[in-house]
Amino acid sequence: MPASALPQTLAETLRERFAERFQTGAAIRAQHGATTTWIENQPPDAVVFAESTAEVAGIVSLCGEAGVSVIPFGAGSSLEGQLNAPRGGISIDLTRMDRIVAVNAEDMDCVVQPGVTRVRLNEYLRDTGLFFPLDPGADATLGGMAATRASGTTAVLYGTMKDVVLSVEAVMPDGRVIRTGHRARKSAAGYDLTRLLVGSEGTLGIITELTLRLRGIPEAVAAARCSFPSVEAASSAVIGALQFGLPFARIELLDATTVNAVNRHSGQGLPETPLLLAEFHGSPGMVEELSRSFGEIARDYGATALDWTVDPEERARLWKARHDVFWAVLGLRPGARGISTDVCVPISRLAECIAAATERAEALGLVAPIAGHVGDGNFHNLILVDPQNPEEMATANAYVGWLNELALSMEGTCTGEHGVGQGKRPYLEREMGPALDFMAAIKAALDPGNIMNPGKILPERPGGSR
Amino acid sequence: MPASALPQTLAETLRERFAERFQTGAAIRAQHGATTTWIENQPPDAVVFAESTAEVAGIVSLCGEAGVSVIPFGAGSSLEGQLNAPRGGISIDLTRMDRIVAVNAEDMDCVVQPGVTRVRLNEYLRDTGLFFPLDPGADATLGGMAATRASGTTAVLYGTMKDVVLSVEAVMPDGRVIRTGHRARKSAAGYDLTRLLVGSEGTLGIITELTLRLRGIPEAVAAARCSFPSVEAASSAVIGALQFGLPFARIELLDATTVNAVNRHSGQGLPETPLLLAEFHGSPGMVEELSRSFGEIARDYGATALDWTVDPEERARLWKARHDVFWAVLGLRPGARGISTDVCVPISRLAECIAAATERAEALGLVAPIAGHVGDGNFHNLILVDPQNPEEMATANAYVGWLNELALSMEGTCTGEHGVGQGKRPYLEREMGPALDFMAAIKAALDPGNIMNPGKILPERPGGSR
Fold first, then answer.
1. Per the CB < 8 Å rule, is B415 touching A187?
2. Selected residue of A149, A438, A442, A457 to mutate for chain B interface (largest B Cβ count, 10 A)
3. Is the sign of the CA dihedral A360, A361, A363, A364 positive or negative?
4. Average pLDDT for B288-316
5. Would you state the pLDDT for residue B2?
6. CA angle A247, A248, A253 (to 5 degrees)
7. Closest chain A CA to residue B243
8. Are strands A130-131 and A215-216 parallel, antiparallel or unpaired?
9. pLDDT under 50 in chain A at which residues?
10. Are residue B296 and residue B351 in the same domain, yes or no?
11. Whether residue B248 is found in the same domain as residue B161
């Protein structure tokens, strides 16, 4: 079947079943392909706004019969082309499945539909004393965060989606609905299908409900900001603090170029040197003690300025610097697109990795500022490129390949949290070796028709017609 | 092929290759089947003591060609018949693969072979200031703990094997060796094969190397012991303390019968009422504060006696009560075998679940004392039975089925940490519903010859010849 050919009968059936919730306009289709990055937009043939698990199952069954691809859609904030439709097909928009089904405060868990965003969940939870701790920056949907194994600034303390998803309900490629577990805090009941679906980017099943672990809102939160003479000094301070056992809730690094971009974007007037942003959660006495310890360690590593605060408004202003990074850096070169790297290495290699990356990017003449979740060993360059300039794209891609190889040589990974999608697919084979064949075998067994988000994570199947 | 028929040519090849490391004596074979529980021992046809990944891969390849089962063996401490050989085959004893390959203190991780036990790893780590935090009671091998997704007394703080295994090397059913990841703290690089193998009980691959997260040895440890008038009062105290946010490192419950058994076994002279054992890890000030808070909460729920200590020797004596439970309870009825239940329910249902279980066991006339990791909602009855008494076995099995059903009705699981093996297989289908078909599809795709630990976790394949 040629790409972008939606069989007429399927289109008619879907239109009949979903009326105005079945959409084929160009704008809405483009919006449901990859939009956030440099990766070329490949729109689906149509978009269906699903409102229940049964509807998702129905669409998947119909598409399975017709051999048409299905691509689940949440907030559209993924960065590696996860939402593109290289073979056309149906984008299943899950944003209307946005019900918070249950909050079990005593058990510190909740059940949500996939279209609930993390910000809305936290607004909803506010009065319970509980919160959902992961923060990937974007106000992503929880279904999307699970599907891409997202994490973000708080992973250093609270882990990634693999750690907070207790179980999911999912529509599988044959249209059947499964539940991978229930609400027990731990389970040894067979293969871990929960964590197989988390991070599978919609290629094995579509998550239609999630049971999530929650945390108690910390009694006190302290945030600190400190400037360093070099990126190495800043990363070494983090390593030192982690080895001392400081339980960061967040520990973020911005390099000087990123700080410059943030100043231009939101006029924060920060010193334009490498900056660490830290946060501690706990009792008032504990966060004060931790902030003091962090200050001492930071000064040992050459921190030149250090502020800390427990005031919520000041804290929000401080973190705005971090949350603005993506758009602030894009603003450094209007019209440019951003290619985000996502390597993650063992902490002991982090300073070396960042230093080498900075040097290499400069030598290649790339504008590629760095921001990172350094407590996890994970950082991002946002490489500013003109997608119309093939030479520049080639240089940027050579840099990305070089950096991924460097991370691998340090026993790291090419993707700490953005996933594989289309963009990291060329690097996965090198990283996983023969393990990739077993991923492909699982995909082939669970989705023999290859209808679920094809062209993502895995290499194309030899001889595949779709 | 009839069970227990090891093809002559395969036996000869293995004997030639492994000399005295290939063993077929009845005693050694029986030792390599299930030995710790009521489940009937089904010995393999032969045992091979492997010394390298290449050797394991060689055995698996040979067995794959001959259609002979392979069963990995560690410490032999699994409880659900995971080591039995219902179709005969080769037990691959991994205890000689006991090298600690690397300790990366700066990164707080280590690389070990599967035959290293947790106690030996912790002895080895002592001078690094780090430790491996999981404690399932038995001095299990780390490979076995990963294969069964073990946890134990410290899971409430440190999680289960799914949380501490960063990646594994494994020999897959076709004899190929894969690595599921490297040493990055987090990764979004494709399907989570690490967590698919963790808990797969040797049915998908044989773990030949593990990269594990370590923790800093806490500066101070405080342990507390307190008695309660009833099991409900004790479980309610735990729920209250968890909701207050107390970060238990351990929180264990023994019911009165279990305390009685421990007193008989090791003469601790404990008051024979339900007992909670708690532990806190942190700074000296912090553990003192936590112990005090716990004491206040415990008294609110009716605790009648409370002792706490930071002295390592006293602490060891206190925990001896917990570690002795399995053998102490067996001692209540000499000659009996123990059937261990393993339900895990949401914390809010725990008191109700334990109360119902106690009442039911008494009504059925079963001796079935309770010990549990109550902070996880996980508890065990150890039902004392005479396997020669069919009526008693039927009563015990009816109780187990009833309890598993109760746990499921409370959104829990039949197995929090012991795994499925043979013993929990009848209950998994009910618990997982159609999800079980997808587990079976993964098994069939990765191990089409069904040579890897057949007859465990999944239902028998219809029409299967082995």
1. yes
2. A438
3. positive
4. 91
5. 42
6. 150
7. A106
8. antiparallel
9. 1-4, 463-466
10. no
11. no
The pLDDT value recorded for residue B36 is 82
Residue B433 lies in a domain: no
The answer to whether residue B178 is domain-embedded is yes
State how far residue A365 is from chain B, nearest Cα, in angstroms: 29
ipTM score: 0.96
Beta-sheet pairing, B70-73 with B90-93: parallel
Q: CA A372 to CA A420: how far, in whole Å?
A: 18
Single out the residue in A51, A75, A95 at which a domain terminates.
A95
User: Left, alpha or beta for B377 (phi > 0: left; psi -120 to 50: alpha)?
Assistant: left
Q: For residues B105 and B210, state if they share a domain.
A: yes
What is the least distance, in Å, from the CA of A168 to any CA of chain B?
Answer: 11
**Strands A90-93 and A70-73: what pairing?**
parallel
For residues B106 and B202, state if they share a domain.
Answer: yes
Is B346 in contact with A109 (Cβ distance < 8 A)?
A: yes
Where are the extended beta strands (E) located within A12-164?
22-23, 46-49, 70-73, 90-93, 100-104, 109-112, 130-131
| Residue B133 sits in the same domain as residue B38 | no
Helix, strand, coil percentages for chain A (3-state, nearest 5) = 40, 20, 40
pLDDT recorded at residue A318:
87
CATH code of the domain containing B405: 3.30.70.2740
Contacts of B433 in chain A (CB under 8 A): 178-179
* Of residues B66, B146, B148, the one with CA closest to residue B457: B148
* A323: containing domain: 220-327
B241 and B158 together in one domain:
no
In a domain, B208, yes or no: yes
Reported residue count of chain A is: 466
A104 phi and psi angles, rounded to 5 deg? -105, 85
Task: Verify that B151 and B180 share a domain, yes or no.
Answer: yes
* pLDDT of amino acid B144: 98
pTM of this structure: 0.96
Closest CA relative to residue B157, chosen from B93, B84, B72, B248: B248
User: Residues of A with CB below 8 A from B110's CB?
Assistant: none
CA distance A236 to A301: 7
The CB density around residue A15, as the number of other CB atoms within 10 Å, is 16
- Substitution target in A80, A134, A169, A187 with the highest count of B β-carbons within 10 Å is A187
Tokens of A274: 């490498």
Contact B376 A176 (CB under 8 A): no
A241 and A313 co-located in one domain: yes
From chain A, the residues in CB contact with B172 under 8 A are: 438
Q: What angle do CA A144, A146, A147 make, to 5 degrees?
A: 65
Query: Hey, are the CB atoms on A186 and B151 less than 8 Å from each other?
Result: yes
**Within a domain: residue B442?**
no
The domain boundary residue, chosen from A34, A67, A95: A95
**Burial state string for A280-314 with b = 16 or more CB within 10 A and e = fewer than 16:** bbbeeebbbbbbeebbebbeebbbeebebbeeeee
Other CB atoms within a 10 A radius of the CB of residue A50 amount to 27
Residue A244: the pLDDT is 83
**How far is residue A403's CA from residue A39's CA, in Å, rounded to a whole number?**
19
CATH number of the domain within which A12 lies: 3.30.43.10
Residues of B in contact with A441 (CB under 8 A): 445-446
Nearest to B156 by CA among B342, B375, B415, B343: B375
* Distances from the Cα of B206 to the Cα of A13, A188, B90, B98, B414, angstroms: 48, 18, 13, 15, 25
Sign of CA dihedral A194, A198, A203, A209: positive
Measured between beta carbons, which residues in chain B are less than 8 angstroms from residue A445?
441-442, 444-445
* A414 contacts in chain B (CB < 8 Å): 189
| Sign for the pseudo-dihedral over CA of B238, B243, B246, B247 | positive
* Summary count for chain B: helices (H), strands (E): 17, 18
CA distance B357 to B362: 9
Overall number of domains in chain B? 4
